[in-house]
Amino acid sequence: MRQIMTDERWMAPSGPAMDAFNVRDAFAEHGSALYGFAVNCIRDPAAAEECVQETFVRAWRARDRYEPAKGTERTWLFAIARNVIIDELRARERRPVPVPDARMDLAAAPQTGASAIEDRVVLQSGLAIISQEHRDVIVSVQLNGMSYAELEQRTGVPAATLRTRMYYGLKALRRAIGDEEEGQ
Amino acid sequence: MNQPSREDELMAAALAGGLSAAERRELDAACAANPALLRELEALEGLNHRLAESGIDWTEHQVPASLAGKMDALSRELSTPEAAVEATTAEVSTAEVSTAEITGTPGVQPGVPAGNTPQAVGTAQRESSRAHDGQQHVLRARDGGPPTSGGRRYRVPLLAAAAAALLVIGGLGGSTLATFQQAPPTGPPGTLGAIEGVQLSGSPAGTSFDASLVAHTWGTETVLAIDGLPVGESFEVVLVRTDGRELDSGTFLGAAQTVTCRMNAAVLRGDVAALQIRNAAGTVVASSNLPRV
């Protein structure tokens, strides 16, 4: 089973402190990606907002344990956010969710169980981390089933360029996921 | 942007399933000469498969103004001295929770004070405990390492106290003392981290509301357990400030089961005058005027 790297693993017992961690600056830089990550995983904007807030509260409380040598601030925040989101999704699995929204089917239908949740969250975090240009082509082709010809028609970008963009995007996604999985 | 290499073009075409026979032979030859290329191709094909099987979706979203506002308030609150006070309180609380985990005391929920058993209180405390889970999570990690900063200078005494508590708990059979030790902060309304029970009035017949507030340095948390509201109908939780302004804490749907929810608003408890539950038409269905703190 794919393990999840906890936020603590980024924190060496005696690592240098990140006294300069500033919630306002960190949110300005990473908040959009973190919110996109959270809302795409949970499909509940209010809960996603709570998860983002919780991520920054946890990060602030752990700020003196962050070790830059083990990863960027962005990667560290995403590791924390992933734990927060997995907690939220597991809690939702344990209680009925009276939301008649077709999108909620996503959380229940394709796979169930802790490892499935974790795998989806890992992939979503990778998508949130890579560039929008790469994400667009991966989402359109791999997730939405669009052909390169259709995507070319929609975007005006030649199919050959889109295929190369897909290749680079998948490499970036693999790196983004690999960054996190190295900590296992 | 640099032009893709020939290898990149072939890899991209292979991943897209668009290789001609000649290109396939060319890629095979490249992979034979460079096994790392083949491994990468297999890994990326595996990632493609993983994406397809995951069932995930992605939609681009902008940060909502409500979140930006809450984060602005949060960043301001975390820069206050009170934030440091709450962090210290959390450290003490964490040591106590860790002690209970070590002893494995059955039937005791972290954060549940002795003698409090009603559902609303239990729910509120579970949720409050969950709200503090992050700091507990992190602080437990701190237990494993030597003190390195001023904030951790309490760690050694706390561990010593926890060890002593273990001996006492073992000797006494434990549950009463363990329960006492796990008590969250208590105090009058406005005490950081304490559960403040709220009596809602005006509830429609057949409904019940168990409500609590928790004051934090970054805002006010509302914890609700609701029964009896029409299934599927939307209700809004609103905190009314002392200056009359209103803050939407969140929305929930009526359900056949008990609805439990925890909502946050970026307003300090001292600035909150009332808690209201409103239906979709904006009509207040239950409310409470809160004591000033």
Please estimate the helix content of chain B. Answer: 40-55%
| Unreliable sequence segments of chain B | 88-162, 168-182
For the secondary structure, the number of strands of chain B is 8
Largest interface: A-B, 72 and 73 residues
- From the spread of the alpha carbons, the general shape of chain B counts as elongated
The first-level CATH class name of the largest domain in chain A: Mainly Alpha
Spatial gap, N to C terminus of chain A? 11 Å
Indicate the multimeric state.
heterodimer
Radius of gyration of chain B: 27 Å
| Class from secondary-structure proportions of chain A | mainly alpha
Say which CATH homologous superfamily of the largest domain in chain A is assigned: RNA polymerase sigma factor, region 2, helix turn helix motif
Count the E strands of chain A.
Answer: 0
Unreliable residue stretches of chain A: 1-17, 106-111, 179-184
Biggest β-sheet of chain B: count, sense, barrel? 4 strands, antiparallel
Quote the average pLDDT of chain A.
81
Lateral arrangement of strands in the main beta sheet of chain B: 1-2-3-6
Element order of chain B: H for helix, E for strand: HHHHHHHHHEEEEEEEE
Question: How would you characterize the overall build of this protein?
Answer:
The complex is a heterodimer of chains A (184) and B (293). Chain A has 184 residues and is an all-alpha fold. Chain A folds into two domains: 1-129, Rna Polymerase Sigma Factor, Chain: A, CATH 1.10.1740.10; 131-184, Arc Repressor Mutant, subunit A (Orthogonal Bundle). In chain A, 66% of the residues lie in helices and 0% in strands. Chain A is built from eight helices and no strands. In chain A, helix 3 (73-93) runs antiparallel to helix 5, helix 5 packs across helix 8 and helix 7 packs across helix 8 (159-181). The longest helix of chain A is centred in the C-terminal third of the chain and has 23 residues, at 159-181. The radius of gyration of chain A is 17 Å and the shape is globular. Mean pLDDT of chain A is 81; it is low at 1-17, 106-111 and 179-184. Chain B is of the alpha+beta class and 293 residues long. Chain B folds into three domains: 6-54, no CATH class; 65-181, no CATH class; 195-289, Sandwich (Immunoglobulin-like), CATH 2.60.40. Helices cover 44% and strands 19% of the residues of chain B. Chain B is built from nine helices and eight strands. Chain B has helices at residues 6-15, 21-33, 35-54, 65-77, 81-103, 119-131, 133-143, 155-172, 175-181, and strands at 195-198, 208-215, 220-227, 234-241, 246-253, 259-265, 272-279, 284-289.
